[in-house]
Amino acid sequence: MGNGIYLENKLLDSHSQRVILKIVNIKSTESHVYLFRDQNGALGLNIVKAEADRDARFWQIDPEFYQYSNNITGLKRIFRIFQNNIQPILPYLRTGSGVTSAATHVIFYHIADSKEVIRLNASGQEIKTRLYTFRLHVINRKLGDSNSIENLLIQDVNYRLKLVWEDENSVSYKLSNGEKYTVDLLKYVPELF
After folding, report:
1. Where are the domains of the chain?
2. Predicted local distance difference test score (pLDDT) of residue 2
3. For the segment 75-120, what is each residue's pLDDT rounded down to a tens digit?
4. Cα–Cα distance for residue pair 89/8, rounded to 1 Å
5. Helices assigned H by DSSP within 75-191
6. What pTM was computed for the model?
């Protein structure tokens, strides 16, 4: 505990207005996320980037959840402040993204699979494109772990999926062709509600 971040006896970063409480490595990188308490007593997360990670982004989604993204490596990670600790969310996933928060729950996705497919365009020509398969994950803010929705796979040619809370139990998403779908989460993860 203190206001400096050291690794192998080398000062990486310091903040006079923060007390550093804990630091964890971002899996598959040389960068670190740290938990701090600011001068008002509020907890937060921040990043200490390694040189190889200088183009990475780290941002706050809401007071509890943060997103890490490196477009060069394709690595995306989600972090949470839970019970005064840093919680990497599903740290074995390389593509956790799209965190969408509500008062009681959070939902996000990862790319479970991608493959090259051949489709016909409007003029009947064959074109090669990638098809992405997304898996959704839900977190009840009162609980520690996320639940994966195993029996719902979403596919699209866009590698991003925008999720929107429709009400306290359902989210919607729109595919690149404009089709909109609503998912009743009570059907898939009733134990979280």
Report:
1. 1-91, 95-193
2. 65
3. 999 999 999 999 999 999 999 999 999 999 999 999 999 999 998 8
4. 26
5. 185-188
6. 0.89
